[in-house]
Amino acid sequence: MSQVNNKKIKLVSVTNRNLKDLYFLISDKKIVGNFQPHYGRPFLAFKHKFSKTKVKYYLVKNKMSGELLGYAYWAPEPRFNSFEIGATIIPSQRGQGYGLHSHQVLISLLEKKYKCDRIQAITASQNANEIAVLNKCGFLCEGTLSKAGKIGNRFLDLCIFGKIIRKK
After folding, report:
1. pLDDT of residue 133
2. Residue 9 has pLDDT above 60, yes or no
3. How far is the C-alpha of 78 from the C-alpha of 26, rounded, in Å?
4. Structural domain tally of the chain?
């Protein structure tokens, strides 16, 4: 099982061995919150979908205790040599820097291992905590898509954040 880390957290690759941990996080409305959909299907359907995805998921764990804190991911966009990143931390652990550290580890990994040109993140315009994390990581808001996201019956404006890694 591969992992990457910094002084506060470690990101552990999601495999079939720990897939139920990711399923638990993604399928719980209290964890994913108001700004992203939760996965409400049975585990076997989730496992099948997971086997087909190009998205790379990690469990975010406390480096010292090993406690599960949330999940993070990157998704390739090969046409543009770029990646989308994101992280979700469980509510009881928010506000302690774990989201910031998760983003920093993902950015470092993508810069070094994949030599990408650009990293982007998409978040709801109302998600002030995620926007603050992205700003701290050097992302710039490149635009807002009006009513582009929908959670339940609620439409959300989505902000596109980008960070140029390599200028050509």
Report:
1. 96
2. yes
3. 25
4. 1
